[in-house]
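Write out this protein's structure.
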Amino acid sequence: MPLETESKVRLRALVAEFRPNNGDLLAALHRVQHEFGYLSAEAMEVIGDQLGLFPAHVYGAASYYEEFRFEPQAHTNIRWCSGPACRLRNGNGIRDALLASLGIGHMNGQTEDGRVGVILGQCNGACEVAPMVWLEQHETHMIEPVGNMSAARAVRMARALRDGATIEEATNA
């Protein structure tokens, strides 16, 4: 039997209380993501071992839900609102400006250095300040909504974050 990596030992300890056939899959996935910030292939293997499931079953369940991630999060995410009011007020242009100014080829991607990501957000009902984005720093759990966006402001904000600005500094850029 090969030696276990330190991360596998840690993962096994995190999910040790969960039992097969007990409906614990989602709880185990949440616990691991809360600890590591994402679900690695190794994590899904350990969860599967603990619950008597194939890793493909674990991945299938996790990939069904939007909140589970399979790669480490960017230091700061720009969550772009995809709601109708934001789209009617040039939300797509703002999204495209964010992606282009950061050199990211697609939604839910991030810069090569992992500093800034652009992810899809759902409408939160703040249509009076559309179009909007949220800036999220996952280490500090800081979330800053930014409304009345323009493409020019989105570019300034994205560049500031890319260059190492804090959320507060970026919103004032």
